[in-house]
Structure formats: C-alpha cells, structure tokens
Design goal:
Elements lengths: L11 H9 L15 E3 L2 E3 L4 H7 L2 E6 L5 E5 L25 H14 L3 E9 L5 E10 L7 E6 L3 H12 L5 H12 L5 E7 H4 L14 E7 L17 H11 L8 E3 L2 H8 L2 H7 L6 E10 L5 E11 L6 H37 L9 E8 L9 E9 L5 E11 L1 H19 L4 H15 L16 E8 L4 E7 L5 E3 L5 E3 L21 E4 L5 E5 L11 H12 L8 H12 L8 E8 L7 E6 L5 H15 L4 H21 L4 E7 L3 E8 L18 H9 L2 E6 L4 E8 L1
Antiparallel strand pairs: 1-2, 3-4, 3-7, 5-6, 6-7, 8-9, 8-12, 10-11, 11-12, 13-22, 14-15, 15-16, 16-17, 17-20, 18-19, 18-21, 21-22, 23-24, 24-25, 25-27, 26-27
Length: 716
C-alpha cells in the first residue's frame, strides 16, 4: 500500500505508522505451522503467526476533503483495502454507513475532538468486509486533515457489542437477523437457520432427528443471490435439514463443524440441488456450522448458524471459539423471542376470535384489528364485539384492558364474555358496566387474580345498544373515548358523553355510570375504537378524534364497509405503532316502518281481547301462515293477561317482522320477573308462561326505566 507520512514527526499518523513496525511482520505473515482435522472439518490452529495476525494496527491520513493522503495498511489482514492516495475515504465504507461516518469525520474536523473506538466495517476489493475498531483523530498542527487509525483485533469488543445489539428486539426474525449480522465479522456470508417450531413460537423439545425441519430466518449481506439459493423465509430441503442436524448433533452432543473447501462441501452435500440451495456462489468456499444450543437436560438445538468464507482463509481455533462464544451468549435471546412469538400468537388468536362475526339484519358491521409492532411489549387487551340480542336490538361493545400479554388477554376474554352474557340477559348498559367494574376489582386481588403481578385497574369499556325500531341508541361508557357518529347528511363528530374514571376505581371514588340516549337515523355510521387509533404524541387526543371524524366523513353510503374500515385505519394508524389499533364501524339500517307495529293499551280486563284482535288483523295483512298467526295471537294474549294482572299502568304491545321470525313484545310497569317453573297438578299459576315457552323459539325479559319488557320469538 501507499505510505506517505506527514512531514511533522509529531503527527498522529507518524506515531501510529512508526509503531506498526513493532507489530506487523514485514513481508507478510508466515504460513500456518500446521493444521488440525476433526471429523469432516478442517481448522487452522493458533500459532505464532496467527497471534501476529490477530494484533493488527493500520493508519490512513485524510485531507479536509476526506480524501486519502497516505496510508500504512501493510498487515495481511488489510489485504484488499484500496486506500490509494487521492481516493475518497468513503469508498472503503458500505453504502449504508457513508452518511453516518461522513458526519463523524466532519465533526472531528470542525471541533478538533477525537472520535474513538467505533466498530466499523470496511469494504475489500472483492466485496467482502472487514470489521475494525476505527478512531478518528485530528491532525497535529500545522498539518490539516484527519488521521484514521484502524485496529483489526476487535473481535472481543465485537462480541460484547453483538451481545448488546442482539437482545434489543423480541421479534424472532429481527433477532435472527441481528445474530447473522454479528457473525458476518468472521466471514463473507452468514445465515441463521431455525427449527420450524422455534420460528413459529411453538414449544421446543429434543425432537427426533428424522423430523427436524429448518427454515432460513436470516441472511447477510443483503444482495442478489444465485438462482435456487435459500433466502429468508425459505424452508431447507428435508434431506439438507436432516444432514445438518446429524452433523451438529454427532454422538448426541451438539457441536460445531467446519467443512474447509468447496470440494469437501460438494462431497458432504452430494446433490447438485442441495449445493445450489446452501452454497452462496460458485467460488471455492468453506463453512463453519455453529449449533444454537439451549441448555437443558438434554440440551435442545434451536437451529444453527452458517458462516461462509473463502477456502484460502481457513477458520482458526480462536475464531471458532469466538463464534461459539457469541452464539452461546445470544441463544437465550433467540429463545426469548420464540417465547414472545408463542405468547403473541396465542393472544392474537384469542383476540381475533373475539372480533365480531355479524351484526344481525339491522346493522352492517366491519372491524379491523391491527396488533402492535412485534417488538412491542406484546399484544394488548383491546377488543370490539357486535352481536344481535334476542330481543331484536344490537349490542356494540368496545374495551381496552390495561397492559399487554397473557394477563391482559385473559382479562379481556373474561370481560368480553361477561358483557355479552349480561347484555343477552336483558341488563341495561350501565348495569353491565357496574358488574364489569366489580369484576376488574376482584381480578386485581392477589389471591384470586388471573395473573400474578398483573392489574387491570383503569381498563375502559363502552357499550351501545341500538334499537332498530325506534332508531335510537342507549350508551354507557366507563372511561372510554367517545364513539364518532356520521349522520346521513355527512356531518361527523364524537358523541357527547360524560367522562368516567374507568373500571376498578376505589370504592369511595366510584361514580354511577351515566346512560345516554341518541337518535340514530337509518344510514348513520358509528365508529367505536381504542386509543391506539387516535393517539399521536405530536397532537392532542381531541385533535386525534377530530382527524378520525374527518376521515369517516369521506366514507360514502355506498362504499363497502370493510374496505372503508381498512382505509380509516391506514389513514390514521402510525407506521410503527406501540399500541394495538382496533376499530368497529357500524352502519345503521333498522327496520322499515311497514315491518313494525306498536299499540298502547290500558291495563283493563279487555286488554287481552283487544290485543288478539289487533295482532290477528295485522298478521293477515302480512300474509302470515295460519299456524303462525294462531301461535302469535295466543302467546300475546297470555303475556298481556299477565301484564294486566301485575302492572299498575298501561301495557305496550309491539310486533316486529324480521327475516325468519316474528318478535312479539309486551311492556308494562311491573318490576317482577316472570319465571318458568313446572307447576303442580292443581296449580293454576305459571301455566300461561309455560304455554309461551312451548310456542316460541326463545323468550326473555329486559328491564326499562319504567318497568320491564317480555319478548318472545316465533318462527315464521
């Protein structure tokens, strides 16, 4: 290489360059004294020459334009680094590192403060890379420019840096990629192949050799590879998986192997198809295979790492020791990523199972659930649900459980199912929230809680019940963000609801849950969502809700609702979200006026007869079958009779025609709950309700502010 020292004997370049003579053997390194062979692998032992090659120092002098003035890179390890006088220093850098290193160089020029011990890759002439510890020093006066020293003995420092970098992500793919990038310091190509069960997050055991299945999880550098070569996401051929598994688990003990050159590789692999799949190019190359071993009894192999290098640069014992140490230090990060992947999949499966399937005939729904980025703390406790209630109304529920992971998922599942059961039993939204509030408090108990150390206090929930006959909505919220409503004329905005502290507040601080009622005309669009959709650190939460309303106002009444939901999420959700994004869109359809009828009757003895006459006439107008008409008239007569007997005010009768059934409702001011029971032989009480039970497909009771409504469904 060109060596042009500065005229100043005190310059950093002179001092470093003169010191090179004490460490670099002129004329190149001596050949290795001997080579040791173990199994199918050939390795070069450490000797005096190898020790001198490990302790290498180089120096490059730069002008203020960051061009090379002179260099001293005589050591064999720097072979292929073209630091020619007049060339740009950045030509030695990988393209992705050019901006950062250039900024550092200019910073030292401007401030005169040295930048030392940067782990950096330098590009050789043949495209391979060398990892060095790079220091940038200002030139001594009166010289201008910089002195760049490089130390190619940074393997131990690289081990520490690699271990620190690999554990920064919980994503299995990113963890494998970080490991492969760290291994590249010892070769020209590095790959990580994981057992398929590890890749998918399943449990790992000491599997039978014939059943192993490897998938390529990471590969560096990022370049165009030969046709047929395995890249990330590809499964290794079955015979290749078995071959590698048997090689690294010889004598039932995981161990590293080295295949020294292309000829030996071809002899071991045998098949041209396997050679195309596993060998990264046509050049003569050797490979070191390091198993990823999880300590245990017996130890479990999670996969293996492949490090390929030119055959004229064989692996030395010290390098194999470093490779094994790096893999051993970082394999637990791979297992942690696997466990996170498993938990992520379990929670995600539960979460998707809770997503609504249908909204019934009177509401069109669409939902989007977008989990947080894989390297976040885990899937959260967001859920939305929509389901038709037995009395013809539709329930829309959204909740956000505090925290992430299995504890949040278990609480989410329990609250979701409890809310559905209570709503189906006829409880009002505020009463359901009272029960959920008590449940969250009980789950926080250290003895009866679902997960040790997990607390769901502060979780939120919003429940909305849509009545398709009156085209109205009853809503209660426990600390949740307000739903956004788009009216048929295109006006959009959040519903005005009273804020609440959320679920699980201290008993003395608990407040009653307010009940809000809104008119929701047919064609309206309602959005229930969690905070991950509208939260942005740069804007207030009100501005985020306003952005949601603006985006929703662009949804046309004829747009496909699922496509519109995906558009809303893509327009608002951040690219790298740290919280789950959940959205439920509901387009209100309701019942047509001709499909419903309501009568208000005084609580007199003739009320059952009047109800029979009104219903019979309407059912003839609807062309109902004779048996259906008789059944509806009979059950309505029984319900009205019961209401007149126990109520103190007027009785309301309502008949609703749906797609496959008729729904008859009788409301009164009484507060007693009708109960089905088997009466005695001479007991006249309860026989009417038993008749209702036999005539209907289902029946039930819901409570109102003024009393109750008994409903019954009859097949058409």
């Amino acid at each position: 290489m060109d060596a042009t020292p500065s005229s100043s004997s005190s310059s950093p370049f002179d001092m470093v360059s003169s010191a090179l003579g004490r460490y670099v053997p002129r004329g190149g390194a001596e050949p290795a004294a001997g080579r040791g062979e173990r199994g199918t692998g050939l390795r070069v032992p450490d000797g005096p020459a190898a020790g001198r090659q490990d302790q290498i120092l180089g120096v490059i002098n730069l002008d203020r334009d960051l061009r090379v003035l002179g260099s001293n890179l005589d050591a064999p390890v720097f072979a292929g680094l073209d630091a020619v006088s007049g060339s740009a220093f950045v030509d030695l850098l990988p393209p992705g590192d050019v901006p950062t290193v250039t900024r550092r160089l200019r910073q030292v020029l401007e401030t005169g403060e040295a930048h030392v011990a940067r782990i950096q890759r330098l590009r050789r002439r043949d495209g391979s890379e060398l990892v060095v510890s790079l220091s940038i020093l200002p030139a001594a006066a009166p010289q201008e420019g910089l002195t760049v020293s490089v130390i190619a003995m940074a393997k131990r420092l690289h081990l520490y840096a690699a271990e620190t970098a690999i554990g920064t992500s919980l994503d299995i793919g990113e963890t494998a990629q970080s490991l492969a990038e760290s291994l590249l310091a010892w070769g020209d190509v590095a790959a990580v192949d994981l057992d398929f069960t590890v890749w998918t997050g399943e449990g790992v055991t000491g599997q039978a050799q014939g059943r192993i299945r490897l998938r390529r999880a990471a590969l560096v550098p990022n370049r165009a590879w030969p046709e047929g070569y395995l890249t990330p996401g590809d499964d290794l051929p079955g015979d290749a998986s078995r071959l590698l598994a048997q090689a690294v688990r010889r004598d039932d003990a995981p161990q590293a192997i080295v295949i020294p050159d292309r000829k030996a590789v071809e002899r071991v692999l045998g098949s041209p198809r396997l050679i195309r799949a596993l060998v990264p190019g046509d050049r003569s190359a050797g490979v070191a295979c390091i198993p990823l071993v999880l300590d245990g009894a017996p130890p479990v192999v999670l996969g293996l790492a492949e490090i390929w290098r030119r055959a004229d640069s064989p692996f030395r014992d010290s390098e194999l020791f470093d490779l094994q140490e790096l893999v051993a230090r970082t394999v637990h990060h791979v297992d942690l990523a696997r466990q996170h992947q498993r938990e992520h999949k379990q929670v995600l499966a539960l979460q998707r199972r809770l997503l609504p399937r249908t909204g019934g005939d009177t509401v069109e729904i669409a939902s989007v659930y977008q989990p947080a980025t894989p390297d976040s703390a885990g899937v959260g406790g967001d859920w939305v649900n929509s389901f038709p209630l037995p009395d013809g109304r539709t329930a829309l529920v959204v909740g956000d459980v505090v925290g992430h992971g299995l504890g949040a998922a278990a609480t989410m599942g329990q609250l979701s199912m409890e809310a559905r059961a209570l709503l189906s039993a006829g409880l009002a939204p505020d009463e359901v929230l009272e029960h959920l509030d008590e449940t969250v408090t009980l789950l926080d108990d250290t003895e009866s809680g679902l997960a040790a150390g997990y607390s769901a206090l502060g979780s939120t929930c919003c429940i909305a019940l849509y009545d398709p006959v009156s085209h109205s909505m009853t809503l209660s919220s426990a600390g949740h963000l307000p739903p956004v409503l788009v009216s048929p004329d295109g006006r959009a905005g959040p519903l005005a609801i009273h804020p609440h502290p959320g679920l699980g507040a201290e008993f003395a601080l608990r407040e009653p849950f307010d009940v809000h009622r809104f008119d929701i005309p047919p064609g309206s669009l309602l959005a229930l969502y969690t905070d991950g959709l509208v939260e942005d650190p740069t804007v207030s939460i009100d501005d985020g809700i306003g952005r949601l309303a603006d985006v929703m106002s662009t949804v046309h009444p004829w747009d496909a609702l699922q496509q519109a939901a995906r558009h809303v999420v893509s327009a608002l959700a951040p690219a790298h979200q740290r919280d789950d994004v959940t959205l439920l869109l509901a387009r209100m359809i309701g019942h047509r006026k001709g499909d419903t009828a309501t009568w208000r009757l005084p609580a007199r003895d003739d009320a059952p007869a009047r109800a029979r006459a009104l219903l019979s006439a309407l059912l003839r107008q609807w062309h109902a079958r004779d048996d259906t008409r008789d059944n509806v008239v009979l059950l309505a007569s029984e319900l009205v009779t019961n209401a007149v007997r126990f109520a103190t005010g007027p009785v309301t009768v309502r008949l609703i025609r749906t797609g496959h059934s008729l729904l008859c409702e009788v409301g009164d001011t009484g507060n007693g709950r009708p109960r089905l029971r088997r009466g005695g032989r001479y007991d006249d009480r309860g026989r009417g309700l038993y008749v209702v039970h036999r005539l209907t497909t289902r029946w039930g009771v819901r409570w109102t502010d003024t009393g109750k409504v008994v409903w019954a469904e009859v097949a058409r």
